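User: New here, any thoughts?
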Amino acid sequence: MKKLINDPFQVVDETLSGILKAYPNHLRASKESPRALVRADAPIKGKVAICTGGGSGHIPVFLGYVGPGLLDGVSVGNVFSSPGAADMLAATKEVNGGKGVLYLFGNYQGDTMNFEMAAEMAEMEKIPVQMCIAKDDVASAPRSEKDKRRGVAGIFFAYKIAGAKADTGASLEEVKKTTDAVIDNTCTLGVALTPCTIPAAGKPTFTIAEDEMEIGMGIHGEPGIERTKLKTADEVATIMTEKIVKDLPFKANDEVAVLVNGLGATPPEELYILYNKAYDILKGYRIKVYRAFIGEYATSMEMAGASITLLRLNDEFKKLLDAPAFSPFLLQWRKA
C-alpha cells in the first residue's frame, strides 16, 4: 500500500499540525496537550460543552465535528487507538463554560475506560460531567443486547443534535437526555470491500478477496456478520436498508434522516447509487426521508465500502438537525 507520509509513527501529530495550520481561526490546541483540540473561541460561557474523542484514522470523525453548533473539544489518539485520559481532561478543562461537560463517544472498551477516568478527574476539578455512548452498529450485537453495539457513523447525528441542543441553553441533564434519545433511535449497517493499512503496522488490517465483500464489518476491521461474493449496488443497499428497518423497527409514517457514508475510498457516485435504491426501499415501507446526507462522515483510512444510517425523527430532532452549525470539514450548515 502506497501512502503519502513521512515517519509512520508521526502521522497523527503531523496531521494535527497540518489541520491547526489550515484552520487557525477555527481550532486551537489545548495548553496542556497537543492531542486535545478545542474551538478557537472556547470556552463558551453559559453553555454546556460537548467533548468527544477516539482514535485517528476516521476523519472527519472525530475532530471534524468541533465548531459552532457542534462540539467544543476533542481528544485524539493514535490510529485506531483510544486517546489518553489526560488528553481528555485537558480538552474538558479548556471548554468548560460553567454548565458542565457532556462526553459523547463511541462504544469501544478503551474509549469507555479512559473517558470514565477523565470524568472522575474532572469531578475532582469541580467540573460536572455526563456521558453519552453511541451504539448504532446493528451488526455488532442484537437489539436485545444493544449496550454491546459499536458506535459507528451514526454518531454524526448525535453530534449534530447534541450541539444544537446545547446552544439552546439547556442544562447538562437535558442535553444528555436528548442525546441519549438520538442514540436510541439511530441504526447503522456497513459493508467493506477492501482492507486499510495502519501506517505504523505497514500491512492491511485484514484480507479479503477481489470478488468478496463483508457485511457488517466494523470500522477497525472487526468481523462482520457475513462474507459473501461481491453483489451489485442495489443488492447491497437492499441488504443494509432491510436489516436496519427491521432492527428498530422503523415503521410506516416514520420520518427519518438518512446517512450514506463512504469509508474512505468509495467514489461519491457509488454512494448516490446506494442512496437511490435505499430511498426507493424506504418509500415502499412508507417511511418519509426528511433529510439525506451523502458523503464521507466517518472513514476508516483508505478502506473501500460504505454504511447506511437511519435516524427516526421527532419534531425536536428535526428542529435541532436543521439548526445552524459550522465546521471547515462540513462547511456551513444550511436547512435542506
The chain has a mean pLDDT of 96. The first strand starts at residue 27 and ends at 29. Residues 11-184 form a domain with the Rossmann fold fold (CATH 3.40.50.10440).
